[in-house]
Q: What sequence folds into this?
């Protein structure tokens, strides 16, 4: 059952990678990377249950945090050209 | 008062995440939670926006309604993607909330239901992008707007 | 009882897998950035919610359940923020959505 979920996550990851390669604008790619992060968070927690070690969930929480911060930071860099240092 | 509530929430989070309940670790947790609250207070982060307590009594009711709505629009979005009947449209709606937090909640709720995305906002006018005319009509009936105003409870 | 929870988990995982695969197909198929955000939203809400519900059925009540719900809440709160930031920036860089416009836009 967990294996089926992991296979679904893998297929989704490959489809999203195709979008990242094709993507015309930068925003397509950023959006696809964010979705890939979400799929990876699900994949980490599923793998933890699959190998009977639910401690993996801590890593999943940290990955979710970094995914959000990273996406917003990259978009901020696109919009202003800096990450907020003094002019 | 709000600092105390923030402290208790942080302490609950510490206890749930750690899973160890020895005296040393709990006292370390209390010290670090107090330090976090001090930093938040020094940065003037503890106000109505940071900790919207006036949402709390009606929040559960709203969340259940929102989950139902998300489920419905997930089904509809899946159908649209499979059918390929994509006719995107852009329009503006007015929001009737008073505080900023409630406006953000409304905009986030629109974005959270798949099929509609808030692309811009200026004062109390939102620009919404919808995947299909059906999704657009759902937003234009202002049902969600009334629900969020009820959640805010200021009128 | 055990078997019933297993069946519930199976159903939840099936719906979630279908949801994320359809979402990824939409991410490839739909015409422009603004439409693709809807597909990404489907992965973020439908997929995660049902996967986490399925895993909660397996754990019962323990600290693991709380951590799972914490992941769910976190993705639930951050997903609209990233979607909105992406859409807003795309509009600021003068990318106009395809399709018709009703009334005047901002």
A:
């Amino acid at each position: 059952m967990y294996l089926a979920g992991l296979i679904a996550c893998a297929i989704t990851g490959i489809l999203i990678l195709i979008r990242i390669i094709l993507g015309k604008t930068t925003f397509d790619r950023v959006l696809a990377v964010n979705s890939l992060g979400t799929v990876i968070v699900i994949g980490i927690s599923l793998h933890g249950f699959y190998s009977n070690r639910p401690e993996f969930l801590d890593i999943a929480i940290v990955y979710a945090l970094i995914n959000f911060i990273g996406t917003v930071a990259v978009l901020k860099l696109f919009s202003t050209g800096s990450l907020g240092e003094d002019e | 008062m709000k600092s105390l509530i923030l402290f208790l929430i942080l302490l609950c989070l510490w206890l749930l995440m750690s899973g160890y309940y020895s005296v040393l670790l709990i006292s370390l947790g209390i010290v670090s939670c107090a330090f976090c609250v001090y930093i938040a207070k020094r940065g003037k982060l503890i106000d109505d926006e940071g900790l919207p307590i006036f949402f709390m009594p009606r929040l559960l009711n709203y969340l259940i309604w929102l989950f139902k709505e998300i489920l419905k629009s997930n089904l509809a979005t899946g159908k649209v993607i499979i059918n390929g009947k994509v006719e995107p449209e852009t329009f503006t709606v007015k929001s009737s909330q008073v505080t900023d937090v409630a406006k953000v909640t409304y905009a986030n709720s629109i974005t959270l239901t798949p099929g509609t995305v808030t692309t811009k906002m200026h004062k109390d006018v939102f620009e919404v992008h919808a995947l299909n005319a059906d999704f657009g009509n759902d937003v234009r009936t202002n049902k969600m707007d009334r629900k969020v105003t009820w959640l805010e409870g200021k009128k | 009882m055990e078997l019933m929870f297993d069946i519930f988990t199976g159903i939840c995982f099936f719906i979630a897998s279908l949801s994320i695969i359809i979402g990824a197909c939409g991410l490839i198929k739909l015409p422009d950035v603004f439409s693709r955000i809807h597909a990404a939203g489907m992965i973020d809400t439908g997929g995660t919610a049902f996967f986490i519900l399925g895993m909660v059925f397996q754990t019962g009540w323990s600290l693991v359940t709380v951590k799972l719900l914490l992941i769910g809440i976190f993705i639930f709160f951050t997903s609209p923020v990233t979607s909105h930031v992406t859409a807003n920036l795309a509009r600021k860089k003068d990318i106009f959505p395809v399709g018709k416009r009703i009334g005047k836009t901002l």
Notes: Residues 2-79 of chain A form one domain.
